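Thread: Newbie trying to understand structure tokens

Hi all, I'm a second-year student working on a class project, and my supervisor (Dr. K.) asked me to get a predicted structure for one chain before our next meeting. I've only ever worked with sequences, so writing a 3D structure as a token string is new to me. If someone could post the tokens and maybe explain what I'm looking at, I'd be very grateful. Here's the chain:
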Amino acid sequence: MISVGKTDRGKVRDINEDSIYLYDSGVGMLPNLYIVSDGMGGHKAGEIASSLAIDSFVNYVTENNFESENFILDFLVNALHFANSCVYQKSQADSDCYGMGATFSACTFVNQKAYCVHVGDSRIYLINNSSIKQLSVDHTYVNEMVRTGKLTLLQAKNHPQKNIITRAVGIDKNLEVDAFVCNYDFDDRFLICSDGLSSSLNDNEIFSITNNSQFDSAASNFINAANEKGGLDNISVILICEVHHEN
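---
Reply by user tm_fold:
Sure, no problem. This is what the structure looks like when written as tokens:
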């Protein structure tokens, strides 16, 4: 796999509470690993939450093993539960970090299958030359109301509580994790992003930038586009695709 990634403070926030991790080669037994985490909490606590979530997840991955590909998804879920424990314990032990948490969206790619774990409102997209599909579900109060028919999509877009998330790493001892596997074609691309991108750009705009950018400049193009819309939040993106081998 090859990837490009970038994280940016945006135009409004004092600090960047997002963290990203992208590694195209082996991470423990995994052949690659990509993560976006968006932190939240008091002064600098969100920054601590997102970086600690990623660090502890990666530590688990590098120090533990799994038997075969059939166990990869469970392995990722276990790693995220470990990360949740680390962030939660830090928030309980340090009064400056009390109540901190982070979204977490991670993917690894093995034999044309994407193995993904997800918590919060960062997003995982599958994009090809003709379509864009959001693979992850936003764990937000407003999205839950849309799902149950209490709000329309239009009402949700402008709802005053649209940024309230219902699941995050480190908020509680227990964590419900979304985990899924997705097949993909060689020309497909995967985008992992924080809500600083998806709240600034709609899916059509994200699709257009993906398909009209040189791969190496795509991450910067995403950041620039979100900042042109006001840069109201921290912005993080990772774009991933299969390496093409010429015969």
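A couple of things are worth pointing out once you decode it. The longest strand covers residues 33-40. The chain has one domain: 2-138+167-241. Feel free to ask follow-ups in this thread.
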